Amino acid sequence: MKIKKHTLFLLSCIAYIVLVNLIGLNWFYFGVLAIADHFYWHYINWTFWKKREAIEKKQRSAFGEWANAITFAVIGATLIHTFIIQPFVIPTSSMEKSMLIGDYLLVSKLNYGPNVPNTPLSIPFMHNTLLGSKTLRSYSDAIQLGYNRLPGFSSVKNNDIVVFNYPVDDMQSNMPFDKKTHYVKRCIGIAGDSLEIRNQKVYINGSEQALPDRSHGQYSYIVTTNGTGFRKKFLLKNDITEVYPTRSRDRFFMMLTDENVAKLKSLSNVVSVENPPLSPKQQDSAIYPKGNDFNWSTDNYGPIYIPKSGATIQLNENNFALYSTVINKYEGNTLKIDSSGVYINDSLATDYTFKMNYYWMMGDNRHNSLDSRFWGFVPENHIVGKPVFNWLSIDPNKSGLDKIRWNRLFTVIHGEGESRSYLIHFLLLVGLWNLIPWLLKKKRNS
């Protein structure tokens, strides 16, 4: 009897998924949970029109109650992570000093709209690999639901900090887009923008784009001293965390903000602080598009048009390299070019109309960030969410209670002016949440 029940459940799930795919409502895939409840859990009253005596739930053992409670807790947390908010930790220094290594963020899925999983068959809380493994998949790609985003509060804006799936992730072969590694960068350009970098300054549609109040752009500098060097205590006190020695004992390669530069220039043992822009000859061959002859570098790049859904461009040998990945890999067309022209799906094409919006992501740590300058555009189906809150921050360079960056706890990420910690407010709220019921209970018992 159990085998028949399980078989019927699986057939019902497969039929349901096929049906919603056929009618184009793929985001209804989580209706499978209702089917599971009908067969196993019986929490929902599916026969509400019958007398209550006829639909009483079966008595469960203590083990059964615990198993159902744990199952529903896992499902609830998974749905919250998928559709509402998800935790994320900053692993690299690409956004230094705007966001620090060890910052623990809450990423809102509601701002840009939840991206319904393309790969629903996966183990909860394991993004793309099994816990403790770097190669074993935590998902099955047997079912692919495609790109379906629910409505959000807003669209991605210029200068938003965004969490997204790394477009060129090759950790595993043929990775589904929703299982690629999570990255966090600042969205410098949105769909339809023309972007250019001139001597490290970003221009959008011809206008220079300044970083927001709460951002702290960093660039590489060569700092020359009189041979005395720097004490580690001084560097940590002034939040200078990226310092690399050179062959000369009196020269240092540093990643610095404008504030850091001013501080160093005021020191008596500092001879010079130089920030020479990189020339194309100094730049490695990894610049997007790879193997290009545009003579671009990370400091002088573009202009480049960022594709917008519905926009049409003329195709030629000059821009083929810029948009070939978009047309072929992200939008699923076959593409080739020869002496007679550009062929899309084996047909000669002189233009192309984009199906999706695309974005240009860059780290605030401009000379130490693997970003769109190296791998190109981010498709809209790779957008995960918007970081909104920093609830914890751990400094890996310190120990004990000093490891906690207290001024960054419970801070809002976006906004104007200096960020403010709401830790005290949170503690007061938790205190009241527990105190008020205790007082009411005491009053009733008196």
Features:
single chain; 446 residues; alpha+beta; Umud Fragment, subunit A; Alpha-Beta Plaits; eight-stranded antiparallel β-sheet; four-stranded antiparallel β-sheet; 8 helices
Beta content: 15-25%
Write the CATH homologous superfamily of one domain: Umud Fragment, subunit A
Q: Which percent range fits the helix content?
A: 10-25%
Q: Largest beta sheet, briefly?
A: 8 strands, antiparallel
> How would you classify the helix and strand content by structural class?
alpha+beta
Q: Mean of the pLDDT scores? A: 83
Low-confidence stretches: 52-56
Question: Assembly type of the shown chains?
Answer: single chain
Could you tell me how far the N terminus lies from the C terminus, measured between alpha carbons in angstroms? 56 Å
- Count of separate DSSP helical elements: 8
> What do we call the CATH topology of one domain?
Umud Fragment, subunit A
Please write the CATH class name of one domain. Mainly Beta
> What is the number of beta strands?
23
Globular, elongated, flat, extended or rod-shaped: what is the shape? flat
The appropriate CATH architecture of one domain is Ribbon
Evaluate the radius of gyration.
27 Å
Describe the structure.
Among the domains are: 1-59, no CATH class; 85-189 and 363-446, Umud Fragment, subunit A, CATH 2.10.109; 219-274, Alpha-Beta Plaits, CATH 3.30.70. The chain is 24% helix and 23% strand. It has helices at 2-22, 32-41, 62-83, 232-237, 258-265, 320-330, 372-375, 423-445, and strands at residues 85-89, 103-108, 115-116, 148-149, 161-165, 182-189, 194-198, 201-204, 207-208, 219-225, 243-245, 251-256, 270-274, 301-305, 312-314, 335-338, 341-344, 347-349, 351-353, 358-362, 378-379, 383-393, 411-412. Strands 1, 2, 5, 6, 20, 21, 22 and 23 form an eight-stranded antiparallel sheet that branches. β8 (201-204) and β9 form a beta hairpin. Mean pLDDT is 83; it is low at 52-56.
